Amino acid sequence: MTHQKSDQWTSRLGFILSSAGAAVGLGAIWKFPYMTGMNGGGAFFFLFILFTVLIGLPILIAEFIIGRGSQREAVSAYQFLAPKSGWTIIGRWGVVGCFLLMSFYCVVGGWVLIYSILSIVGLVIQDQANYQQLFATVSENPFITLLGLAGFLVINIIVISFGIKRGIEKSTKVLMPLLFIFFIIIVFRSVTFEGAMEGIKFFLQPDFSQITREGILYALGQSFFSLAVGFSTMVTYSSYLGKDVSLPMSAASVSLMNIVISLLAGLAIFPVVFSFGLTPAEGPGLLFMVLPEAFGQMPFGEVFLSLFLLLFLFAIMTSSFSMLEIITSAFTANQKNSRTKVASIAGVVIFFAGIPAALSSSYMSHIKIFGLTVFDATDFLVSNILLPGGCLLIALFIGFKMDKALMKKEFYYSNNLPAGMFPIWLQIMRWIVPVTIIIVFLGSLGIL
């Protein structure tokens, strides 16, 4: 028997926008442009779309089915669907993964928070401003970085304390559409710069000679990262969902919104990169150097930049909400602990865990793990090992363990999809998804 949750999404739109918000965040807006820049441009974008549609979307449907089929958060869902078995590790894998992800994700969230405050007081866009130097100051000053990290986590704790309806859904419904509108305005300005066409070609014209084995793994990892699959965050989100919503159609909507936002992010960034002679492979700081440069050339640029940074900040938060939610719900499932208490404790622990990543550009820059800073090493571990690993486990669970009748029922609720769609999806989850993940992973290690 499943049980009905007291706190639920009030509408399909609220669920889709919140799920898209969980997916969009840093993955599409911050990480996608610089990963694309570092891995050959258009060819990386092509692989990213391919992996999102063929691998990421089926896994997203799977997480939705596991969540609503059990009506439980990530850890309890696997315990309920496969009691007294080793499959329960998948939920715990997700909680640990989200914890590690937040330890560097919230550092970037802190940077955006600081940039937002600086832009509001007019300190970002200035005549003859050196945007590379400004980013270095924000990311390398230990006090500023840790202050941003703490502030970002406090906002997360407050929203998660309010729950699904009054916290996550209410805020997402307003700000996600605004993010789309602002992106379109920025793209329109970006593509009109002199020399912008070189950036558009770099982004949209695939050159497959630029793709490496490692680049293929990054494209796969990016598709998982930007769809928020692999750590069962979407299991937790869909556990709050009623039966009147089509899971495959909702997953398709989230995937499409994610691809569109990634496209807009690329069109906002790369034309400006080439117009101003910057390097597309600049790395994590790319967004913070390019956008102020672009806004600085616009009338009322300071106002537009402030508004965009605030919306971008929210887009990041909608992703971090989903991560803090999976941690919080895992420890409040027994109803004995309050959301506020658990979210606050989790926030404090994440703050201390995030200190090494926050100080990777300053006091701890000399500490290297396999040649990477703590920040980059944590990012690599999460994006290219733990996320694909989590997706592999979910695919095997769906393909060979979960009750087929329950899956089929959840798949066809509230839609008119053809009868043959479920068997096709199941075979994709059973064979294509695991085999692809294993081949890409082994290929990146040079084994294949």
TrEMBL record:
Topology in the lipid bilayer: Multi-pass membrane protein
An annotated Gene Ontology molecular function: symporter activity
Key word Transferase present: no
Keyword terms: Membrane, Symport, Transmembrane, Transmembrane helix, Transport
Annotated CDD domains: SLC6sbd_Tyt1-Like
Family label: Belongs to the sodium:neurotransmitter symporter (SNF) (TC 2.A.22) family.
Annotated protein name in UniProt: Transporter
Annotated source species: Ornithinibacillus caprae
